[in-house]
Amino acid sequence: MLIRSPIVAVLGHVDHGKSTILDAIRGTSVAAKEAGGITQMIGASYVKKETIDSVAGEMAQKMKLNLTIPGLLFIDTPGHEAFTNLRERGGSIADMAVLVVDINEGFRPQTIESIKILKQYKTPFVIAANKIDASGGWKSYKGESFLSSFAKQPEHIKQRLDEKLYSLMGKLSEYGFDSERFDRVTDYSKAVGIIPTSGKNHEGLSDLLVLIAGLSQKFLEGKLEIEETGQGKGSIIEVKDEKGLGATVDVILYDGVIKKNDEIMFLTGEGVKKTKVRGLLEPNMKGGTEKFVNIDKVVAASGVKIFAPGLEYAMPGSPVEVVKNFEEEKKKIEAQFKNVLVTRDEAGVIVKADSLGSVEALTAILKDAEIPIKSAGVGKITRRDVLAAKVVGEEEKYSGVVIGFNVQILEEARIESRDSEIPIIWSNVIYKALEDYQEWVKEQKEAEKNEMLAKFPWPGKIKVLEGFCFRVSKPAIFGVQVLEGKIKNGYRLMNKDGVVLSELKGMQHEKEKVNEATPPMQLAVSLDGITFGKEVKEGDVLYVYMTKDEMAKWDTQLNLLSDVEKELFGQTKRMLKKHSF
After folding, report:
1. Residue 181, exposed/middle/buried by CB under 10 A (0-12, 13-18, 19+)?
2. How far apart are CA 287 and CA 412, in angstroms?
3. Half-sphere exposure of 240 (CA within 13 A, CB side)
4. Quick one: pLDDT band at residue 178, thresholds 50, 70, 90?
5. pLDDT category, 270, cuts 50, 70, 90?
6. What is the pLDDT, as a whole number, of residue 360?
7. What is residue 579's predicted lDDT score, i.e. its pLDDT?
């Protein structure tokens, strides 16, 4: 058995310094004056143990850490695709994660999403509290450890930094995590370590590398054991067309070995397929015109590009395995994803996302919000998706939408969406897709409410006040109080026996003309064709009259009414049954 390198994902909000941190990690070979200290892989960067020792050896000694892992594999394409339950043991592709947070900005939408992903998949993580160089008054010491730089700062700057750290710690506690500055943590199994860093000036980088390596070694040792010649297992990060090669897949290999001419299996929209590896490629780091170089085999943990027939149908986020027993392994993979890629007969929203991990995450939050899903899949949003949503919308309006995460919307889909008025709700932050959908539903209900207000009488109930008859007839003008619902100019009023009396010609509230009135307003109303004291008397309770068609329309729109208004509507219906429409 061998110990492989831990796989580390780097997460965080846009512009908080993820790329800068990764660039700083790649640049450690320069700091170590060691040629080839970083191996650039497909979708990943590999930092050897020797490089970590050179850059962070002093920090490792302070932490009494003797590194035995061969290095660290940093995934360059973090996100939901790095957190899919692909392994038979469960868990994510990433063994650990670095959550990059701008110490000056704090938590932002993608930070919160990252926290939720890490919590969902129970992935150990540390926080790089980045951009300390932009924290007012901080004096940078390029390439030094955080503890060394921190010791040289004035007391008021130290205090200011600690205040910002306490703010991050408070926010983390809201999501159920205890945390502390890394050098103050006494038990890493109970608290998240926060490492203040400057990706720009490489400050705190040695602390970060040593902490990741040390925690990986301490808590993941059993998980990192592999058979060097065992069955290759990995995950497809991206499907790409390469000039001269056709469809290829970028794969993070987390177990075993894949060799040229091996048969591999992967998930497509039509189930599990297999193909024969024609080539394994890694970036050409030696210069020249060739973008890639061929290799005969690849051993975990590593990133590699595979080209083979039929890969254009592979799904991002799909497991990829060397075939041993195709039928048996096929059943395992399909069982693993049967609840992720769904198509149901009942009404529900159409979901499209950029990878299996994203689909899994998006469907989970929609289910938690009790939003029904008709179908969920990986790939671009097409006209067919919009047409499917249109069919659903004819049955259930609020489900007639396409919800997309981080995927391309084809022009044909945009045109169909515009022409059929079926919305495509898109976001690159998963929980925001949910929020945008909920906001759309709210807007639709408000628009329907306004339409009903404009076109149909709202349920309403008023009482004729005593001592407020201003005119007996032509028109009759008298005082009323609105008890329930609402009344509006143009509404016809009826008595408790369902007899239509007259149409509201005008209303005044506090000597001002109004078009609409709600409880508990008192106002003067004007009705033609009746005589006060005859058809209408003091103390009478009057109701808004509705035709049979208006009643039928309201029966389909009861969700627009409050509970009190629903009861009033039912009361109105019962009265009208005693009177011929």
Report:
1. buried
2. 42
3. 15
4. very high
5. confident
6. 83
7. 63
Evaluate the CA torsion angle 307, 312, 314, 316 in order and state its sign: positive
565: closest CA among 480, 493, 464, 461? 461
Q: Which residues contact 316 (CB under 8 A, 6 or more apart)?
A: 81, 236, 237, 238, 239, 354, 355, 356, 378
Domain-embedded: residue 321: yes
Whether 176 and 297 share a structural domain? no
Calpha distance 519→380 (Å, rounded): 51
Helix (H, G, I), strand (E, B) or coil at 56: helix
The whole domain housing 521 covers 460-577
Q: Is the peptide bond before 475 cis (omega within 30 degrees of 0)?
A: yes
What lies within 8 Å, CB to CB, of 114 at 6+ separation is 11, 12, 13, 97, 99
Residue 318 lies in a domain: yes
Does the residue 338 lie in any domain?
A: no
pLDDT band at 323 (very low <50, low <70, confident <90, very high): very high
Residue 132 has pLDDT above 90, yes or no: yes
| pLDDT, averaged across the chain | 87
Q: Determine contact, residues 398/441, Cβ cutoff 8 Å.
A: yes
Measured in residues, the chain has a length of 581
How far apart CA 284 and CA 413 sit, in angstroms, is: 39
Write the CATH number for 493: 2.40.30.10
How many domains are there within the chain? 4
How far apart (Å, rounded) are the C-alpha atoms in residues 238 and 81? 9
Q: Is 497 left (phi over 0), alpha (psi -120 to 50) or beta?
A: alpha
Residue 39, pLDDT score: 55
What is the residue-wise DSSP string for 160-198? Answer: HHHHHHHHHHHHHHHTT--EEEGGG-S-TTTSEEEEE-B
Does a structural domain hold residue 212?
Answer: yes
Question: pTM (2 decimals)?
Answer: 0.70
DSSP bridge pairs for 9: 75, 97
Q: Residue 570 and residue 559: Cα distance in Å, rounded?
A: 14
Looking at residues 263-267, what average pLDDT do you find?
Answer: 95
Together in a domain, 293 and 433: no
- For residue 87, name the pLDDT band (cuts at 50, 70, 90): very low
Site of tokens 């070995």 = 257
The answer on 200 and 57 residing in a single domain is yes
- Cβ atoms < 10 Å from Cβ of 14: 13
CB of 123 within 8 A of CB of 94?
yes
Q: How far is CA 205 from the centre of its chain?
A: 30
- Tens of pLDDT, residue by residue over 10-38, are 888 777 777 888 888 776 544 443 334 45
Q: With a cut of 70, say whether residue 476 has pLDDT above it.
A: yes
> Looking at residues 348-367, what average pLDDT do you find?
88
User: 95: pLDDT confidence band, cut at 50, 70 and 90?
Assistant: confident
On whether both 297 and 326 belong to a single domain, the answer is yes
